[in-house]
Amino acid sequence: MQQQNEPPHGQPPVGHGEVVDRRVGIDRRALQPPSATNLERRRGPGRRLTDFVKSAEEGEMNKEQFLFLLAIDAFKRVNHKTFPTWTDVLEIIRKLGYRKTMVSQLQLGPRANDWTEKPDAPAGVNKPAPKRDE
Questions:
Q1: Which parts of the chain register pLDDT below 50?
Q2: Which of 39, 60, 115, 124 suits a disulfide with 55, CB 3.0-4.6 Å?
């Protein structure tokens, strides 16, 4: 005889959602993203890591990667920050001498306005704060 709180045989317990077997249905890895950005990390079958990424993941950084790591570390020490913001990271990149001199290879959609600047453009990150009237 079935107790009052038990569900009928083969039914999920009362108060619980249905159990979903994730092994059946669409494989999300096979789906293409709605708009490819050229930032996708999943390589898919038969595609290998680039030498740029592979060497860094194996612990062998090139000069550029090592210089960036040192710059981030120095920023964190000098400013007593464990986690720099993205604005901080962009500031560090600009102070390293990087400038937006080429058209982007990313497809970021209609909200992103691409631009270029001259290679010798100032970093623009050390602008003095506006003076306040006292």
A1: none
A2: 60
